[in-house]
Amino acid sequence: MNTEVRFLLAIGLMLAVLVGTNLMFPPVIPEEGLAADSGAPPLESASGVSGGAVPSGAEASSAIPSIPTQQDPLTVAGQAPVEQAVDGQATGSSVVPEQRPIVATPLFHFEFSNHGARLHSAVLTQFDALNREGLVDLMPDGADGYLGQKLVVGSDTVDLSRVVFDVEPAAGFTLAEGDSARTLRFSYQHPTSPFTFQIEYEFLPESYQVVVRGSSAGLERPLLVTDLGDGIAFAEADSATEARSMAHVHNHLQEGIQSTIHEKAETMLVEGPLVWAAFRSKFFVFALLAGETEVVESEASYLGGMLIQESQFDGRVRLATAQSLTADGEFGYRLFMGPQDYALLNSLGQGMEEVNPYGWKFFRPIVRPFVSVIMKILTYLHGTLSLGYGWVLIIFGVMMRVVLFPLNHKAMKAQLRNMAVQPLLKEIQTKYKDQPEKLQKEMMKLYKEHGFNPLAGCLPMLIPWPVLIALFFVFQNTIELRGVPFLWMPDLSAPDPLYLLPVFLGLSMFLMQYVSYKSLDAPNPQMKMMMWLMPGMMVFIFFNLASGLNLYYATANIATLPQQIWIANERKKMKGQPIPKAKKD
Prior knowledge:
By secondary structure, the protein is α+β, with helices and mostly antiparallel strands. It has eleven helices and 23 strands. The strands form four sheets. Strands 9, 10, 11, 13, 14, 15, 16, 17, 18, 19, 20, 21, 22 and 23 form a 14-stranded antiparallel β-sheet that branches.
């Protein structure tokens, strides 16, 4: 049973108890009382991989061949072979030393190689890896470099992922806060032909976004294929839960956002036009967005498609995207390699904030506003009070009960009124059990005279549930809460390793129901059964949910106890009192 199903089951059980007991088991009171045509070329695998047929008349240059397994020289559109260097060995030439330029900013350290202009390490300096010592590196150990480029012309493929580039600056550079943007440039000039290729990465010191620009000359309008690699490395302590979050996502111009977890991925082609393609884990994103800016203007501003292949790593896939070059042989796109921060992703545009959406599609319009407001409150309290998020959650739980006190008070008073009317209700049901129309008429009369409404006692109490549901999704993938410790718990976004909080949550639920049960004048077997069963069921369901969620819910339960005690005392005072009349407007 996955986490979302477990949580929804818990919500369903709690709502069933809240509404069902109010309707079915009332306390017994004594008798007395684009879609546009972008023109972006589709993809077709040379090996015949299924996933989309090329329309009739499509040019051969729209095809992506399978990734070569041998590093032989490739012919460039009938010209002389392109020399390739693999691990420092060049075909027909001397050994070419490898250079590893490093770009360091306050947010990340990226290490490239001049062999293929590939990215070999993407370390996020603001985040610790929770499954090992050190910082988060988005690239898995043993990965063979990301962002290698290929050019497809007719039936020929120029694989640039192994050629030796000139890099400037050779050692890379460091950007400090407040510095201007700087560019890392890779250039290749074929020694015996006019073919050239250049790609530039523009970095800002305070941004996870990297603007990529490049050009190709000497080929007739090639198709650019960019290798996105094998996905994001594991970085969380709970690898099983993290594995269920690993997915590749794309945004199709007409069909919208599609997400596929790696466990269900298949080798296939996704035809364009695509706005972006991405890998995501539980807390991080590695995405390629078409175009240098958010504005999509031309055919070259879309991705022609995406190829999904098996990865060298078990349980992963490898992605490659394709895009056309302009008439001048230029191309551009954006990279984002960073945390799943909603504000950051939203600033990228093109729907990137939905790369890891909250829950099911029909649920998102309801949950999203609550998530946004809750995170603003939590971060404000965290910054203003200079308290850890554990104490912030406790304060937030108490605050919620204080804010909702009037509604809860109204709900409890409605429950008292309903309880007082129970003898009359039972009398009517018995007297008119064979006369449905008369029974309905008398029920309406009872409602008008005494304000009886079986749902009045529970509807106001349903308001806290959207907050609880929103908090569930907050802890699922909100980067601010990742790895935050509190007391004995190493991570508020992960389950309690000692399972003490789920047990405490169950005890708080039992205590709330016990106070209500003991205030009854007559035994209620159904309520007694639920008092013993529900806490145990909730412990079972919540034991694998985020400890921060358990902390909030347990705090809210304890904060509700004063109201529960008040309602218990009011029930005792009702004994022998006349049935209250409904207030008239």
